[in-house]
Design goal:
26% helix, seven-stranded mixed sheet
Length: 183
C-alpha cells in the first residue's frame, strides 16, 4: 500500500519523472502503485521470471532481464528503483552499476533492501544477501551519486532498522567531468 515505508521512500522521488524503471518488479506491486500515482509517466518493469511478469498490470512495459544486464541504453530513466531485489543479484556491485548506467543525469535511484545488522530478524533463504548500510552508501558515492540512507517501515511494522532505503541522485555534471578527465 502507499502507506508502507518502502512505497513512501519511492513516491516522493516521482516528482518530474517521465520515465520510470522498476528493477526486479516481481508481480508489479510497486509499478502498479507508481502507475496509479503518476498515470502520465512511462513505467517499465524488469524481472528475470517470465511467470512473475505475467502478473504485472496492463499499461506497464515489461522486459524479462537480469538486474545485471538491463536492456536499455545509458541514461534512459528519470527514476530507477528496486525493492528487495539487490539481495538476489549474484554480483550486487555489478547490479548497482547497471542501475546507475540507465539512470539519466539528475535522475534518482532508490534501493530498498535488508540491513545486515538485523540478520536473524527474519527466516531467510540460504542465497539471500543482506547489506551493510555504509558499504552500499559508499558504493553509490563512489559512483558519484549524492546519497542518503534511512530506515523505513514495512508491512505495518515501524522503521526498526530491518529495511533500508538508499536514495541517490545522479549529478548532471558527471558526464562532463569524465570527458574532462580523459582530455
Amino acid at each position: 500500500s502507499a502507506q508502507d515505508g518502502r512505497a513512501q521512500a519511492i513516491l516522493p522521488q516521482l516528482q518530474g519523472a517521465k520515465r520510470v524503471l522498476d528493477v526486479g518488479c516481481g508481480k508489479g506491486r510497486y509499478a502498479a502503485l507508481i502507475k496509479h500515482s503518476r498515470p502520465q509517466a512511462e513505467i517499465h518493469a524488469v524481472d528475470v521470471s517470465p511467470e512473475m511478469l505475467r502478473h504485472v498490470p496492463a499499461g506497464i512495459h515489461t522486459h524479462c532481464a537480469s538486474i545485471q544486464d538491463l536492456p536499455y541504453p545509458d541514461a534512459s530513466f528519470d527514476l530507477v528503483y528496486c525493492v528487495e531485489t539487490l539481495e538476489h543479484a549474484p554480483n550486487p556491485e555489478s547490479a548497482l552499476h547497471e542501475m546507475i548506467r540507465v539512470l539519466s543525469p539528475g535522475g534518482r535511484l532508490v534501493i530498498i533492501d535488508k540491513n545486515v545488522a538485523r540478520q536473524g530478524a527474519l527466516q531467510i533463504e540460504a542465497w539471500e544477501r543482506w547489506f551493510d548500510v555504509d558499504t552500499v552508501t559508499q558504493q553509490l558515492q563512489k559512483a558519484h551519486l549524492n546519497v542518503k540512507a534511512e530506515f523505513v517501515s514495512y508491512d505495518g511494522h515501524p522503521a526498526d532498522g530491518l529495511f533500508v532505503a538508499w536514495v541517490g541522485t545522479k549529478p548532471v555534471a558527471v558526464m562532463a567531468n569524465k570527458m574532462a578527465e580523459k582530455a
